[in-house]
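Quarterly update from the structural biology core.
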Amino acid sequence: MCGRDMEVRSEGIQVKCDKLAGAPRTRLQVWLIRVCASILLWTCLVQLVAVAELWRTGQPPLRLQAVVPSASSLLPARNYTSNGFLIVSCNGGLNQMRAAICDMVTIARLLNLTLVVPELDKRSFWADLRDEVQIIKRLPKKFQRKYGFQPFEMRPVSWSNEKYYQEQILPLFQEYKVLHFNRTDARLANNGIPLYLQKFRCRVNFQALKFSPEIETLGYKLVHILQEKGPFAALHLRYEMDMLAFSGCTHGCTNEEAEELKNLRYAYPWWREKEIVSEERRSQGLCPLTPEETALVLQALGFDKETQIYIAAGEIYGSEVRLAALRAAFPNIVKKEMLLDPDELKQFQNHSSQMAALDFMVSIASNTFIPTYDGNMAKLVEGHRRYLGFKKTVLLDRKRLVELLDLHQNGTFSWNEFAVAVRLAHEKRMGQPNGRKVVAEKPKEEDYFYANPGECLCEGRNCDDLSSVAASNHS
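Predicted structure, tokenized:
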């Protein structure tokens, strides 16, 4: 007789041996019970041995191109009592919102909250996280605005650690039940976060978060077209009108263009900096490289005339005229508009974030990624490529490059001297494993977590040991 119910769970399969209320067992029943119990126990034993081996060795199961495994299948579903409902309004561009989503899901995980889904693709990303965070499409009626309920709105303090959320935010949920975070960018610190939360951020970013099926289908088509022609580099040429206007970078522009960019800056009251000295910014390495400068740098780094280059960017300021020098050096330059039928792009053309999503996918898949400015997209692509096995990413030292470019262009450095200096400056800036920089009390100056998520890359091994992995991807 079973003295109590016995429950065994294995990968979502639940088997129950109920108490036999006084019914006599035949020899066949006893035999069947023993066989079933033996099978279940052996299944559990095999799984436990496998899991123990993974944790003992730190070696992940095989995953195409990835350094780290998906551990989600090894974790039981979390059952918790929700402390309240979290509504979020993601602000910024595509990649700013992407990082924000990862942070918000992590905060919901930390505080045991129920997350109300933002207006995003619900069929893939959110379903992938239901074993960790309770997620709903909309608030219960009694908490909805149209029924008179007003959630508490606030902006969490930027770059905060888990102590801030536990001590200052959690009590607000206990009081108001529903909080609306109306800004979500950079609300979680880079460093000083518990390891399990850092790994959870990675799981959200690299495994769960996906684009809509329409974007993914077209993105994969772009990648396939490029790969059919051979290896390719993705050049994130951040020489776009808004970038130049708000950074104040006008090197290489005419006086009329510089005035136009300044006027655009003044047209936006929320942009605090109005008068900016362009050359001062450039000398500090705070400006994106111009197309002409980019051509010289790529040649110095050893990219030849046959290199296939995909421009991952919006409309280049000055249009095709400004791309003339780059095209002369690298004739095999292409953009998504050149590779796809206009009808295929039509549904995305008035949505800059969706167009950026296509560039993001191509940049992740490229053999080499080269950003000319370290904005949000450059940082997230860099981190994603590290996660995929430290794929080659040329992290340009713009401050040093400006010095070298000026020395070459004023005749002080010959071409060979310039090329050698450029290569030396970037030997250790190819996306190899390295530690994330920590700057106490100045999180904005630290290396961005999503650009170098070290806690998710080196489990069970030293990052220095992964240099051979990086070298094979860079050859």
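The CA atoms of residues 109 and 133 lie 6 Å apart.
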